[in-house]
Design a protein that fits this description.
Elements lengths: L1 H13 L2 E2 L3 E2 L8 E2 L3 H4 L6 E4 L21 E2 L6 H7 L22 H4 L6 E8 L2 H4 L3 E6 L2 E2 L1 E6 L2 E7 L5 E4 L9 E9 L56 E2 L3 E6 L3 E11 L6 E11 L8 E9 L4 E9 L4 E6 L8 E3 L15 E8 L5 E9 L4 E4 L8 E4 L2 E3 L1 E6 L9 H14 L3 E4 L8 H10 L2 E5 L12 H15 L5 E7 L8 H8 L4 E5 L17 H4 L12 E6 L7 H5 L4 H4 L4 H6 L11 H7 L7 H25 L9 E6 L22 H9 L3 E6 L4 E6 L5 E11 L5 E11 L4 E7 L9 E9 L5 E10 L28 E10 L2 E10 L5 E10 L8 E3 L4 E3 L4 E9 L7 E7 L2 E7 L2
Parallel strand pairs: 26-27, 26-32, 27-28, 28-29, 29-30, 31-32
Antiparallel strand pairs: 1-2, 3-14, 4-5, 4-6, 6-12, 7-11, 7-14, 8-13, 9-10, 9-12, 15-16, 16-19, 16-20, 17-18, 17-21, 21-22, 23-24, 24-25, 33-34, 34-37, 35-36, 35-38, 38-39, 40-41, 41-45, 42-44, 42-46, 43-45, 46-47
Helix pairs in contact: 6-7, 8-9, 14-15, 15-16
Length: 906
């Protein structure tokens, strides 16, 4: 047994790297993280059993006297339903109609009752005397939903309430040295699960009777993930167990008789030069002892690589918790001249500092040590704008928000791999802010770490919406808010606090947040204080984005819009993982609509009609391919119309928008830039192109070319060119202009493209931006029809209809060469593609597949779904974690008018 815990200790120290060479930071070194073997390939065996099926005394469940032979394997972190599906008790909820309430395949918490999903979770661990004797041993619980009793070796050690509460439990008096310890946790579901709204009843939320979001509103009385009761972007009838379970890590660590907790670094930057930063450091020092001993200790701090150290003597009596403060007035060394500033993506580098803190006794023995990374920057906002809309500023400079709305995985099937992939895609798209929508969750420390490193700001909301009631137990809510703020406040990416989505606040929230932080802005809810209401949410005629009529609520490309977006169909391989083949084609409207929030995004109606404008499809493969055209058009048009109107440019003042919504919480036909399975759609690469920092773009309503600059510097003597090619790949128009591009600005309407009167019904536009040396700095490619736009309620327009003739595009031939290499934990495929034919190669797709033809996920492509003019070349790199490599693998190159090529990569 001693060997086992020693091994676990080594693993805890060494497993700080995840995939792709990515280091996962933690505040301290853990003796063990109690991750399950099942589901996560961790080091611990977890079992679970329904509480009502147990007859043993509660005290006995956390002892070796209780046999778990008839308990089932459990996934920890995870939920009860995750484990029940894993054990084959219930079918996969994300497939077909399995989750549909009327299917009666998975019992719902509201109907089955709380006892049905109340479960005991149990595991064992060892604590050898050589590592644990004469030390304080702590059990850190990062998140349980919703209530829990924690028992260790026959003793109750704590109880927890609220989904977002982190607890540090002193288990020193309860562990067995050199013997097996048994941890048993009884997990209760939310107090009030809520259910779907009875038809005909009044809704609580701002949407009135539209799609019954939030069910009957009752789930809001808890402090939990409200979307589990059902929303139009997921299953409208919700997740059956409301995500009951141990959903975040449980860890073990040791300290001396005094411990450190919740360090915080406040940076106060001088204005207007931002060349001086005053740091205030605080940390909680805790004496958990029951003895009468008075501890006299020294708290020491160091900002590494800056030659900054500081210390203070502290006296602690029995059970005392004291906040120790180091101010720049008391410690002048905490004033940093010419600090390395943290900036969002495209605005500068993401500079980070390392702070370490330790506490020592009189003899110089280290009792505890913690470390944290922080960034020096100032993020503010104001409404001193032409229309009173909120504008954000970073380090004194205004920043146009290219944002998005983040939705958590609906059943909390989270992992570092998933977090890394989704945020890497986010950065690839050029997005600079993520909003945690109020009906979701606050994401992990690793999530914030990656946002720090990638330059993505975070707007976090505190788990309330206008579609549901507010928490019944205020003390649970405030304790969860305080715990969360203390956990995330050191991250420079954390930009803004908001109490709720489209609702009011709990009355003491603002004061609580300001007391615990005070360095970020705050507003009561998502649609106030210079931020107007959202929409559109669903498929519309793409021309409506250009004329600013995409929402029936009126103009929405104005000021700051918190929710504006459209869907994209997944690729065919993903569709096949969602439902039976017979439901894919012909389209089974019932099944498709269920994964589309009961058809909310119009995937089987308007989206399908727009796909059919490329000609009728013979099978699901053809339909899915054409579906990418519509999805790519959705994304490019939205990002570009907002680009054009950024800040003081364009037709009106806009300060930013948040795309609705960002990532798929379940498998769904109304996907986004990537599918739930982490497989990108064409929308990712359309967004990546539209958000490139130097970007030429075309307006389909004005027929004019503009150039957008996202950098905090100007560019002079650049040239922008436009070429139009007909369906025979013959150039029929070209024009060029010399421009000076303003800092963080737009060159609007540089020139108009005059399409020849006899141009073919479908044609193509190529834009290039060249620097002063003639090197390409940005580019763009469009396809366009001659369909005349006849208004927002007609299926017409050059973005939307009349693409049937695209089938007559002549075949193109691509020359493909590639090489592979390995570096650190990654495997790379570098591909050179040359269009050696006289025809445009339209919508070329690369795929990295295993031997069975399934995509290897997650894989990261520098570009995809691209088009090449005759003679044009392109280099693409694909990267994948070496651990994901199957023995048989292949590269596939295919496209609208090219023959598929397959290259073995064994």
């Amino acid at each position: 047994m001693k060997t086992r815990i020693t091994l676990l200790f080594v693993i805890a120290l060494c497993c700080t790297y995840f995939g792709y060479g990515q280091e996962v930071n933690s505040e301290r070194t853990y003796k063990a993280v109690l991750t399950s073997q099942d589901g996560h390939k961790g080091q611990f065996v977890w079992k679970m059993k329904k509480a009502t099926d147990l007859t043993a005394r509660t005290e006995a469940l956390s002892t070796t006297n209780t046999s778990t032979g008839d308990w089932m394997p459990a996934i920890v972190p995870g939920t009860v339903l995750n484990s029940l599906v894993y054990n084959g008790i219930y079918p996969e909820p994300y497939y077909g109609l399995n989750n549909k309430l009327e299917s009666n395949l998975i019992p719902d918490l509201f109907h089955a009752g709380r006892d049905f999903y109340t479960y005991w979770f149990r595991t064992e661990f060892e604590t050898p005397a050589k590592d644990f004797k004469d030390k304080k041993t702590w059990l850190q619980v990062d998140g349980i939903n919703y209530r829990a009793e924690l028992w260790l070796n026959g003793k109750m050690i704590s109880n927890i309430a609220g989904m977002f509460y982190q607890d540090h439990i002193d288990i020193s008096d309860y562990i067995h040295l050199d013997r097996t310890n048994v941890l048993a946790i009884k997990v209760y579901p939310v107090d009030v699960p809520g259910t779907i709204k009875p038809k005909g009843k009044k809704t609580i939320g701002a949407l009135n009777d539209e799609f019954q979001n939030g069910g009957n509103g009752e789930i809001g009385r808890n402090v939990t993930q409200l979307m589990t009761v059902g929303w139009d972007f997921t299953f409208l009838d919700g997740i059956r167990d409301r995500n009951t379970g141990i959903w975040r890590d449980i860890s073990i660590y040791t300290t001396g008789h005094v411990t450190l907790r919740h360090p915080f670094i406040k940076s106060d930057l001088s204005r207007p030069g931002y060349d001086l930063s005053r740091q205030t450091v605080s940390v909680e020092v805790v004496n958990p002892d029951d003895s009468w001993t008075v501890h006299e200790v020294t708290v020491e701090g160091e900002i590494k690589n800056e030659k900054i150290t500081f210390e203070k003597q502290v006296r602690l009596i029995r059970g005392q918790q004291q906040e120790v403060l180091f101010t720049p007035d008391e410690y002048p060394q905490l004033v940093i001249k010419n600090p390395r500033l943290w900036w969002p993506i495209n605005k500068g580098s993401q500079e980070l500092y390392d702070l370490s803190l330790r506490v020592k006794d009189k003899s110089g023995n280290i009792l505890d040590s913690i470390s944290v990374k922080f960034g020096i920057r100032e993020i503010t906002s104001h409404t001193d704008t032409p229309d009173g809309s909120r504008t954000f500023c970073v380090n004194g400079k205004p920043i146009f928000i290219k944002g998005t709305n983040w939705l958590p995985e609906n059943m909390l099937r989270n992992s570092n791999e998933r977090t890394y992939a989704e945020l890497r895609y986010t950065a690839q798209a050029g997005i600079n802010m993520i909003r945690f929508w109020g009906g979701g969750i606050t994401e992990s420390d690793y999530f914030f770490q990656l946002c720090d490193e990638l330059g993505i700001m975070v707007w976090t909301e505190f788990w309330m919406t206008g579609d549901t009631k507010h928490p019944a137990d205020k003390s649970i809510y405030y304790s969860n808010v305080a715990s969360t703020v203390k956990r995330i406040r050191n991250h420079p990416s954390l930009a803004y606090y908001v109490s709720s989505n489209e609702s009011t606040e709990m009355p003491e929230t603002e004061a609580l947040i300001n007391r615990l932080d005070g360095t970020r802005g705050y507003q009561m809810q998502s649609e106030c204080c210079g931020i107007h209401d959202g929409s559109p949410y669903k498929q519309v005629n793409i021309m409506r984005h250009y004329e600013n009529t995409a929402s029936d609520r009126g103009s929405r490309i104005d000021g700051f819009n918190p929710e504006y977006g459209a869907p994209c169909l997944p690729i065919v391989e993903c569709l096949r993982e969602m439902m039976d083949e017979e439901d894919l084609w012909p389209i089974n409207k019932t099944v498709w609509d269920y994964s589309d929030g009961n058809g909310f995004h119009l995937m089987t109606s308007l989206y399908t009609d727009m796909v059919n404008e490329y000609g009728p499809s013979k099978n699901i493969e053809e339909f899915a391919e054409k579906g990418q055209f519509v999805g790519a058009f959705n994304y490019k048009s939205i990002w570009e119309v907002w680009n054009y109107n950024k800040l003081n440019h364009g037709d009106r003042y806009t300060s930013g928008f948040l795309f609705w919504y960002h990532n798929s919480p379940i498998r769904q036909v109304c996907s986004r830039m990537w599918d739930w399975s982490l497989e990108p759609t064409a929308a990712l690469y359309a967004a990546q192109n539209a958000c490139e920092p130097l970007h030429p773009q075309f307006d389909y309503l004005k027929n004019r070319v503009s150039v957008v600059n996202d950098y905090y510097r100007s560019f002079d003597n650049y040239r922008v060119s436009a070429e139009v090619y007909d369906l025979n790949s013959r150039k029929v128009f070209s024009r060029e202009a010399k421009i000076n591009i303003p800092e963080d600005g737009v060159c609007e309407d540089i020139f108009k493209i005059d399409f020849p009167s006899d141009v073919t019904s479908v044609h193509f536009i190529k834009l290039r931006l060249l620097d002063e040396n003639g090197k390409e700095a940005g580019s763009n490619f469009y396809w366009r029809s001659n369909s005349k736009y006849e208004g927002k309620n007609r299926l017409t327009g050059p973005t939307t209809a009349g693409f049937q003739e695209l089938s007559k595009l002549k075949k193109a031939k691509l020359k493909v060469s590639y090489k592979t290499r390995k570096q650190n934990n990654s495997y790379f495929v570098e591909i050179d593609i040359n269009n050696r034919s006289g025809s445009i190669a339209f919508f070329t797709q690369l795929q990295f597949l295993d031997g069975s033809g399934s995509p290897i996920r997650p894989s990261f492509y520098t570009d995809n779904f691209f088009s090449l003019l005759p003679g044009e070349k392109k280099t693409i790199t694909i990267e994948v974690n070496q651990e994901k490599l199957p023995e048989n693998r292949k590269l596939v190159v295919k496209g609208w008018n090219i023959d598929k090529q397959v290259f073995p990569l064994n």
